[in-house]
Backbone:
């Protein structure tokens, strides 16, 4: 593995890290990953993420465990951004689609599905 280059924004940022589990089915996990690849990701969803102020979003997977890392400007307010994101074009349709792969309540919003993680260590 070569590692991952981090983006430089020319401004201080804050980071959010969340986790969620997918249904423990290799076929569903494969389809979830495909839904997020460059060829299949919905343009409206990517545009909406940027529109609410998110600078970068990455999702990592191990088995059926997902970890999402979000970088945003210092003045970013998570709760208001997620409320706004939920109202943008095709967002509800996307949430209903990806709910078929996620091990959580199908009617939950994205912000309810993803559980915010707390940083408990960094290299001091």
Residues:
């Amino acid at each position: 593995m070569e590692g991952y280059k981090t983006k430089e924004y020319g401004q201080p940022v804050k980071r959010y890290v969340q986790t969620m589990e997918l249904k423990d089915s290799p076929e569903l996990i494969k389809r979830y990953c495909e839904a997020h690849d460059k060829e299949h990701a919905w343009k409206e969803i990517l545009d909406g993420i940027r529109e609410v102020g998110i600078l970068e979003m990455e999702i990592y997977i191990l088995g059926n465990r997902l970890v999402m890392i979000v970088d945003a400007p210092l003045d970013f307010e998570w709760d208001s951004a997620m409320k706004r994101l939920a109202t943008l074009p095709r967002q509800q349709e996307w949430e209903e689609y990806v709910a078929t792969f996620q091990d959580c309540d199908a009617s939950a919003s994205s912000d309810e599905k993803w559980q915010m993680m707390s940083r408990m260590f960094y290299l001091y």
